[in-house]
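Researcher: I'd like a candidate sequence for this fold, 275 residues long. If you have to choose between options at a position, lean toward the conservative one.
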């Protein structure tokens, strides 16, 4: 019976993965506003999951305002590529502070400030990290999706097959040193392959980029695991059958998008003609 349940669970997981892959590929092929729209939808759903994780009941004012600010931030980033992310996020923080002030004047407790802190953290963790992908070139968008996916798969299979030494048991007991090394190697390989095929920077630069992104992909995974352990839940939601929630699938990608946005601003990896 257990084998049947495992097989059914694996089948459901594969079907969901196939649908997600089809949506991602379709948006990537069409490009432009399709990519921006998909990034925006995923970021808003992920933000909603984050807000519900830390305020499962009540707090509707915080949730609604957080989603409205997230939508406004993403729309501004999509329509105005030159808009400084810090300026837009500062505006969101200011509105959040006003919300906290009004709520505190009624409640006179720390709860409004805690809700405001959750809102700001959610905006920074999901929309702020993901929004730069809207304006990446096609090959950059492919890189920030393929690299963490390859790293996650390599880490999983190596961990299952050879993992003996826990890497960070206080955060995620099942992850191993062996799996982490395999994930890092996979990230470097994917980055170098993308560099050889489409890049304009030297191979050593792509190797270094792959190493940094591989580390950040794993840290993103650890961070999301810590969030769920902090509130004692297994998944961020049940939206994706067999996979949990959107945050469960974006944990590595969001950190990779953020670190690549910084890295590419300092050093160009792909020629402008590739956009």
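Model: Candidate sequence:
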């Amino acid at each position: 019976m257990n084998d049947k349940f495992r097989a059914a669970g694996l089948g459901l997981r594969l079907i969901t993965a196939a649908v997600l892959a089809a949506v991602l590929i379709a948006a990537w092929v069409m490009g432009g506003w399709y990519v921006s729209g998909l990034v925006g939808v995923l970021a808003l759903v992920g933000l909603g999951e984050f807000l519900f994780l830390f305020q499962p009941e009540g707090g509707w004012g915080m949730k609604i305002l957080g989603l409205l600010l997230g939508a406004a931030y993403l729309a501004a980033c999509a329509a105005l590529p030159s808009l400084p992310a810090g300026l837009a996020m500062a505006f969101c923080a200011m509105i959040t502070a006003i919300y906290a002030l009004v709520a505190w004047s009624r409640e006179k407790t720390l709860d409004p400030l805690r809700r405001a802190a959750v809102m700001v953290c959610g905006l920074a963790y999901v929309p702020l990290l993901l929004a730069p992908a809207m304006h990446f070139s096609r090959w950059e968008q492919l890189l920030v999706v393929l690299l963490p996916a390859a790293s996650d798969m390599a880490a999983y299979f190596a961990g299952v097959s050879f993992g003996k030494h826990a890497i960070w048991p206080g955060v995620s007991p099942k992850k191993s040193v062996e799996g982490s090394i395999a994930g890092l190697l996979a990230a470097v390989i994917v980055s170098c392959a993308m560099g050889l095929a489409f890049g304009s920077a030297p191979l050593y630069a792509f190797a270094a980029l792959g190493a940094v992104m591989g580390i950040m992909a794993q840290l993103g995974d650890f961070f999301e695991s810590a969030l769920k352990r902090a509130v004692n839940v297994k998944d961020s939601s049940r939206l994706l059958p067999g996979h949990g929630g959107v945050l469960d699938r974006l944990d590595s990608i969001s950190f990779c998008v953020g670190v690549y946005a910084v890295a590419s601003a300092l050093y160009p990896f792909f020629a402008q003609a590739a956009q």
